[in-house]
Amino acid sequence: MKKRFIAGAKCPKCNAMDTLALTKENNVEKVSCVACDMEMTQPEEQVEPQVRTEEQVIGVFKP
Fold first, then answer.
1. Each residue's pLDDT tens digit, 2-52
2. What is the pLDDT of residues 19-28, one digit of tens each?
3. Is 29 helix (H, G, I), strand (E, B) or coil?
4. Alpha carbon 56 to chain centroid, angstroms
5. Number of independent structural domains in the chain
6. Would residue 26 be called left, alpha or beta, if left means φ above 0 and alpha means ψ between -120 and 50 degrees?
């Protein structure tokens, strides 16, 4: 399973910058903090695709 780090993101629990990693397992997206082990999960059907013309964004995770 490959982790993709979210640049510029701050952990809501420990407030550490650039420590959130996104993984996908069984069609469930999981964001975890490598500093404090906080985790958030979201099934794929709840992920809302958003189009941003000026940025190269793969997806937006809304906890």
1. 889 999 999 999 999 999 999 988 778 899 999 999 998 876 555 555 555
2. 999 998 877 8
3. strand
4. 15
5. 1
6. left
What pLDDT shows up at residue 26? 79
Give the single-character DSSP code of 12.
T
Q: State which residues form the domain around 25.
A: 1-63
Domain CATH for 26: 2.20.25
Please name the amino acid found at residue 40. Answer: M
Nearest in space to 22 (alpha carbons), one of 39, 43, 45, 35: 39
Residue 42 pairs in a beta bridge with: 29
- 4: Cα separation from own chain's centroid: 8
Q: How distant, in Å, are the alpha carbons of 6, 7, 10, 32, 54 from that of 51? A: 18, 18, 22, 24, 9
